[in-house]
Amino acid sequence: MIRNAISLQSGASRFSRMSMLWFLQLLVGKYAAASRSYTAGKLEDLQNHPLEIMTQAVSGCAKKSDQEIKNTFQTLAYFAAASIASFDHSMEALANMMITALSDPKYGRKVGQSFRILLAKSEIMDKANFCKIRALRFQKVVSLIVIPLQGAYVSPMTSREEKDNIVIALAGVLAYMDSNLIADAFGFSSIMLEGCVSSDDFTKETFIHLLHELIPFCPKEAESHLDTIIRLMTDRTHNTYDSPSDASVRCRAKALDVLMRLAEVLPAAGLIQRRARLLPELDLALDDCSRDVRGKAQLAKGKWLRLGVVA
Question: Which of 93, 195, 231, 281 is at a distance of 20 to 30 A from 127, taking alpha carbons?
Answer without folding.
Answer: 93
